[in-house]
Amino acid sequence: MDNLDKLWRIVDVNQNRLSEGLRILEEIARLYLEDETLTSRLKNLRHSLTLQDITSNSRLLFSRQADTDIGAQLETADQSKPETLFSVVSANAKRAEQSLRVLEEFAGLSETGLDAALYSRGRFELYTLEKDLAARLLRKHRRDMITGLYVAIDADYLAGRDIPAVTREALEGGCRLIQLRAKTASTRKFLALAVNLKEICLEYGALFIVNDRLDIALACGADGLHLGQTDMPLSQARRFLPPDSIIGISADTPEQAVSAQNEGADYVAAGAVFPTQTKPDVLFGGLSGLKAIHQVVKIPLVAIGGINKSNFYEAMQAGADSLCLISAVLGAPDIKKATSEFITLMEAAKID
Ligand SMILES: Cc1ncc(COP(=O)(O)OP(=O)(O)O)c(N)n1
Ligand SMILES: Cc1nc(C(=O)O)sc1CCOP(=O)(O)O
Ligand SMILES: [Mg+2]
Question: Is the same domain home to 330 and 196?
């Protein structure tokens, strides 16, 4: 084997290691997380880095000497078994990043004539992708909980009532998805209530989402944050929230829903599906708006606005994975009973 063949051998080994590492990350994104955005980002990266002329370069292929590779034995003895999917992501991202670094170095040699800048760009793209994929994995269990009944505890709607006690009733009724919406409360009151409700939700293993306020979500250790189109942008909120916090986004149009999905939202909410008195100035999307959003997003879809026992089935049929209710639950004489009745009805009507 001449020296040039030895260089091609290095390129071949690292090109293979790169494709393998990227393919493993892609399989996790595609088949385990079922995340379209991450899957296509990984696929595009793999294609841009591995579908070059060099993969069909016979010189590269025939420089291969896997049987006499002195590293092969060492590698198998060395590799400790990854314990979690998180460590599989980390190990394979590292493999691919190291390969890219090696490829970048050898591409820089005049003998190979490869594009070093391509590998360098790819490596930096992969650093970000690794972070996004790992965070998405950490959020999976919370994102999977965006299903069934979602009760928004509206502090204004409940004015004068014992809000923690009302929340407990909804939780006793079986709700595992709670949002605190407090449009007129002072920051101090909002935070005190959020801390209290977060603790109560924890007792029941329920998710606790804060509406609008990143600072309150951070301060009370909420499981997530709900943001509308005029609230803080998702990308900004993501910078500050822990990686396992979920973010839900209200979308008025399919375009807004797709943007939210592409930016990494954990769910989108569409409304108002039916007329509502709870938020008088709300934009009305109707069932047709909900259906249109359902057609373009793969992430969990929450329907909100005017949902009650007589119309909830239409929202489910239109594609909602979860229904967010205020008045139909909080306005009921027995909140625990109303909650459990809704859950029973939704379970019975479940559409696969
Ligand atoms: C689950 C859910 N969906 C939609 C909204 C509405 O959010 P937004 O448009 O930001 O309006 P406000 O609730 O902040 O008035 C929501 N809060 N929750
Ligand atoms: C807070 C809120 N947001 C909506 C939206 O469409 O974005 S509708 C709404 C009010 C939901 O209350 P009820 O269940 O009592 O109609
Ligand atoms: Mg809002």
Answer: yes
If asked whether residues 16 and 103 sit together in one domain, one would say yes
CA distance 217 to 74: 48
Task: Tell me, yes or no, whether 119 and 153 share the same domain.
Answer: no
First-to-last alpha carbon distance for the chain, in angstroms, is 59
Name the residue with the closest Cα to ligand 2, atom 7: 271
- Taking only the tens place, the pLDDT of each residue in 304-348 is 999 999 999 999 999 999 999 999 999 999 999 999 999 999 999
Query: Among residues 138, 163, 185, which one ends one of the domains?
Result: 138
Residue 110 known to be catalytic: no
- Report which of 4, 12, 15 is spatially closest to residue 99, judged by C-alpha positions: 15
Give yes or no: residues 183 and 313 share one domain. Answer: yes
Angle at 21 between CA 15 and CA 24, to 5 degrees: 140
Task: Confirm or deny that 131 is annotated as ligand binding.
Answer: no
- Asked whether 181 lines ligand 1 (CB < 6 A), one says yes
**213 ligand 1 Cβ < 6 A:** no
Report which ligand 1 atom has the smallest distance to the Cα of 211.
17
- What is the ipTM for the molecules in this complex? 0.99
**Ligand 1 contacts CB of residue 212 (under 6 A):** yes
My answer on whether 165 and 62 are in the same domain is no
From 181, 198, 213, 291, active-site residue:
181
Residue span of the structural domain in which 327 resides: 144-348
Q: Is 181 an annotated catalytic residue?
A: yes
Assign 211 to helix, strand or coil: strand
The reported pTM is 0.90
Same domain flag for 305 and 202: yes
